[in-house]
Amino acid sequence: MCAKNAMEEFEALLKESFEIDTPEEGTVVKGKVIAIEAGQAIVDVGYKMEGRIDLKEFANPGEQPNINVGDEVEVYLDRVENARGEAVISREKARREEAWDRLEKAYAAETRVDGAIFGRVKGGFTVDLGGAVAFLPGSQVDVRPVRDAGPLMGMKQPFQILKMDRRRGNIVVSRRAILEESRAEQRAEVIGNLTEGQTIDGVVKNITEYGAFVDLGGVDGLLHVTDMAWRRVNHPSEILAIGETIKVQVIKINKDTHRISLGMKQLQADPWDAVERAYPLGSVHKGRVTNITDYGAFVELEAGVEGLVHVSEMSWTKKNVHPGKIVSTSQEVDVMVLEIDSAKRRVSLGLKQTQRNPWEVFAETHPVGSTIEGEVKNITEFGLFVGLDNDIDGMVHLSDLSWDQRGEDAIQNYRKGDTVKAAVTEVDVEKERISLSIKALGDDSFTDAVDGVKRGSVITVAVTAIEDGGIEVEYNGAKSFIRRSDLSRDRADQRPERFQVGDSVDVRVTNIDPKTRRLGLSIKAREIAEEKEAVEQYGSSDSGASLGDILGAALKGGN
């Protein structure tokens, strides 16, 4: 009976053991630490199975392991039995599985997760998220580039999961997103306490070409270079230094972008309030050249008050030169106030107005008819330009070069750089023109030659040349040409060859042209005039006397 009972009990126990599920490999099971020896923890995972785990698997990065005999832990069952008859278990894999479950929930809910940076890899860092290892790109460490990440290593802090793939075991996290979020909250709080027009102290955080960023206690404001002072500031570093505490006024707050514009000059008196009283039109003041452009130069009259000397108001004589050829930066100059526009904060200044108009000075010192001497500066198709005092020029027109030569021929006698003398014939101050004449200083042979000769006069000329179209004659050195049709009243005698060089011929003056310097002469006109005079004196053809009788009587009377 006893043997039978014992067998039944054994069968029941065997059946019970078969009914109990054996733990599946590749799952997380609960175990109990039953011993710690040789740097390992011996864990009883039940089912009459024990396994060993290195103590370092129970420690967080940078920390000592915290495990004691009797602690219950979850472990990952890799294999039920190894060659030594022990279960192959891992605390690290269990933590990883647990962590992935937790992180997937956090990623779906877009909530923060805690972790610690424990290593550096190419392009960033590795982060322990409580059992799962994530990648932290270098650009996601901070809102600004981090040169030394040493102080951040091993420090437990929040991260935001950007991307995760359990199958590939990839997790990407960001520390920067957390900082930006907290910073935005802080900015919103600080901005909520600010009002436009408020005066506040700030610390200069950064300086750029266009201004400075000022820390107002958790939020930055931009102090633009044009709002630093009423005067021109070329670079913010002229008046500010990083770390300096300054007093600024809140000019504008953009609630949408959280951008704050600041000003320093708004806390100072505006010099433009007194500009019209201090600088009346027409007054002359000393100023300093602050900037030179293609269209003029800016001159500072006082701190915060600048005026523009337009290029057209810089010099009486230098019309087409760059302003930098007339003045230089930082040079002190005398300027005249020409116009003030307080609304646009503009002052128009004149540089040349502080000096006398050189054309006025020339007109006073060189009246019409006076003689000047100067250098030929330029030769053009219509005359010569002669350099005069005070950088001004006078022009000698082609027609004023010579009495005897055509202007086009006479100008060939001059070269650039020649020194010439000329008479002043006209000064037009408004048009800035001075007319000169070289021929006015020489003898006018033509005027002398025809002195006393009038139109209709009969003069005696000498034949100097015989040509097909007529004859060339000379009177007191002035040459003229008598055309074939003017050689005689009778067509039969209108032959040039009937004259010889050296013959003296009486001719009638039909025209005197001082411009072409020519006398209009005609033998035919003289003969017609003599005939008319004979008719008037000795009878009329109507009385019955023939023309031959009249001319005969005239000739006889003349004799």
Automatic annotation (TrEMBL):
One of its GO terms (biological process) is translation. Residues 26-92, 110-176, 197-265, 282-352, 369-439, 456-524 form the S1 motif domain. GO terms for molecular function: mRNA binding; structural constituent of ribosome. Keywords: Repeat, Ribonucleoprotein, Ribosomal protein, RNA-binding. InterPro entries: NA-bd_OB-fold, Ribos_protein_bS1-like, Ribosomal_bS1, Ribosomal_protein_S1-like, S1_domain. One of its GO terms (cellular component) is cytosolic small ribosomal subunit. PROSITE patterns: S1. SUPFAM superfamilies: Nucleic acid-binding proteins (SSF50249). Belongs to the bacterial ribosomal protein bS1 family. Binds mRNA; thus facilitating recognition of the initiation point. It is needed to translate mRNA with a short Shine-Dalgarno (SD) purine-rich sequence. This is 30S ribosomal protein S1. The lineage of its organism: Bacteria, Pseudomonadati, Pseudomonadota, Alphaproteobacteria, Rhodobacterales.
